[in-house]
Specification:
- There is one protein chain.
- The protein has helices spanning 2-16, 112-116, 142-168, 182-193, 209-222, 234-248, 291-302, 338-349, 370-373, 378-381, 389-393, 409-423, 426-430, 455-465, and strands at residues 51-59, 68-75, 79-86, 93-97, 120-124, 174-180, 200-204, 397-403, 433-438, 471-477, 483-490, 495-498, 510-513.
- It has 518 residues and is an alpha/beta fold.
- Among the domains are: 1-16 and 25-94 and 121-172, no CATH class; 211-378, no CATH class.
- The chain has a 9-stranded mixed beta sheet with strand order 1-2-3-5-4-6-7-8-9, with helices on both faces. A two-stranded antiparallel sheet has the order 10-11.
- Helix 1 crosses helix 3, helix 3 packs across helix 4 and helix 5 (209-222) packs across helix 8.
């Protein structure tokens, strides 16, 4: 009873902004209250994050996770979250896991690796319930859009820290965030808007809300005739991919199906044009491209432009990532790929100040005027503000990464260059944030290159030991989880080059190389 009252006093004092206990490490020390008691405590007074606990249950230890208190709760009005607090093996730190796509679910299971290390882990549904591909929750719902854009991640962090203090009796010594895709955007938003929330942030393949939606739209439309039939077939995608590799694969010193920096590849789809043949039967051939197919591929690589050819995003899909067109841009049934639905979902419910709703189709979108109309929503959702000075001044550290085979890769490169200029150049930026562009990796993983990294150890060493990552060792895992090779990925703008004297499957076979100056 006394311990429970003491914990309640901690919550009240934390809400008032006072310090109750000296900040000391309690690594490996158990809680000061029983797990079930958390459900009976009042967290409504947490500043800016009035919280209610729905359930608090003790979970026995397993080979994969220590014994922990599983807490589910809600932050007014609609932000759901789950928190897992180690009972006997807490490392003294907090770890937040980001979400994906439109969220609507709590992806706490993706933080099991951190829980196993002894972290308190937490995740949020970002303010609504739904499927990750469903945006109807945002239909003229500004509160939900604000939660999804920036509020939910922050208030969940605030609530999690207060509950940790109530359970363990002290604040977490460090707080970390990790996320990819929408989770990557969450990480950038936190660094830009709430630099006090996290000491270290791992932000992967961050979604650029406007540029991403425009690329979905542009890529989908580029491969469709006016009647809605696909222009490129699956066979053409493999044809283009093979041509790209023949021309550019050896540029990094190794022919392995991976482009170290796709920007150096000067492939033009016109190199595959069917010479002098105009028969309609060519649409079904897979050994060359018609004029229409050449133009479709060029548009996919080039990215969105206005009707007079002015670029409106940093670029389109990169050479080497053609297999990612399958299903997304080029459908097996000859119709529209998944990007069409994703673009329509965004334009209907999330892209504009006033949502046009479910009757809206891509035929209604005006490429010359509507991109400007999308800027209003960036006030809520963008994570691409290049000003990281608040995060720097707070002592924050960020690892930013993106796969070169991922469609929006140039959005992240463009952002990092803008942020670097804002922060005073590459040397100054390197003290706060480092970008790792991963050759051959798809969106958040997969692909022909290395696709698995120990980001947690890297960010811990940077934050806690001052050891900034010059490179990361990545491992390629196939779809069944078998590790086949490892390579270093160097901090941007440097890259790896194969030396030729060692086994190509080990990191020692590659050396750091600065980009060639024009």
């Amino acid at each position: 009873m006394i311990r429970g009252l003491f914990a309640l006093a901690l919550v009240v004092s934390a809400a008032a902004g006072t310090s109750v206990l000296a900040q000391e490490s309690r690594s490996g020390i158990g809680p000061i209250v029983a797990c079930a008691d958390l459900a009976r405590m009042n967290f409504a007074g947490i500043p800016d994050a009035p919280t209610s606990i729905i359930s608090a249950n003790l979970v026995a230890s397993t080979a994969e996770a220590p014994s922990h208190c599983r807490v589910r709760g809600n932050i007014a009005p609609n932000v759901g979250f789950e928190l897992r607090l180690p009972v006997d093996a807490w490392n003294g730190k907090l770890f937040m896991q980001g979400c994906r796509a439109y969220c609507g679910v709590i992806m706490i299971e993706e933080a099991n690796d951190a829980l196993k290390r002894g972290y308190v882990t937490v995740a949020t549904d970002m303010g609504h319930t739904g499927t990750i591909l469903d945006a109807v929750w945002a239909y003229n719902n500004r509160n939900a859009e604000i939660d999804y854009g920036f509020r939910a991640t922050h208030v969940t962090t605030v609530a999690a820290k207060a509950i940790v203090r109530a359970f363990h009796g002290v604040n977490a010594t460090q707080s970390y965030f990790r996320g990819c895709s929408t989770g990557g955007r969450q990480g950038l938003v936190e660094a830009q808007r709430y630099p006090m929330d996290f000491d270290g942030i791992i932000a992967g393949a961050p979604v650029a809300p406007k540029a991403g939606a425009l690329n979905f739209y542009w890529s989908a439309k580029a491969n469709l005739t006016e009647s809605g039939r696909g222009i490129l077939s699956t066979e053409h995608v493999y044809l283009i991919r093979a041509a790209v590799m023949r021309k550019c694969d050896a540029k990094d010193g190794l022919v392995d199906g991976i482009l170290e920096d796709p920007r150096t590849c000067d492939f033009d789809p016109a190199e595959l044009k069917c010479g002098g043949l105009t028969s309609g039967d060519l649409l079904r051939r897979g050994d060359c491209l018609t004029e229409a197919q050449v133009e479709a591929a060029r548009k996919i690589y080039g990215g969105p432009t206005t009707s007079d050819g002015a670029h409106i995003t940093p670029g389109g899909h990169m050479p080497g990532g053609e297999l990612n067109w399958l299903g997304t841009i080029v459908a097996a049934d000859g119709g529209a790929g998944q990007y069409l639905k994703l673009a329509e979902e965004n334009f209907r419910f999330l892209a504009f100040a006033e949502d046009p709703g479910p009757a809206y189709t891509l035929a209604n979108f005006n490429i010359d005027t509507d991109p400007e109309r999308m800027n209003f929503m960036l006030h809520f959702s963008t994570g691409f503000n290049p000003d990281l000075r608040g995060f720097r001044d707070r002592g924050g550290r960020m690892i930013l990464y993106h796969g070169w085979q991922d469609g929006p890769a140039l959005n992240t490169v463009d952002y990092f260059e803008a942020a670097t200029a804002t922060m005073g150049g590459h040397e100054a930026m390197a003290d706060t944030a480092r970008l790792f562009m991963v050759p051959g990796m798809d969106h958040c993983g997969g692909g022909a290159g290395v696709n698995t990294f120990d980001f947690i150890t890297a960010i811990e060493q940077w934050v806690e030991l001052g050891k900034a990552p010059e490179s990361l060792i990545g491992t390629h895992k196939d779809p069944v989880g078998t590790e086949t090779f490892s390579r270093p990925v160097y901090a941007y703008p440097d890259m790896a080059r194969y030396e030729g004297a060692k086994d190509r499957i080990v990191p020692e076979a590659f050396k750091r190389q600065a980009p060639k100056k024009e």
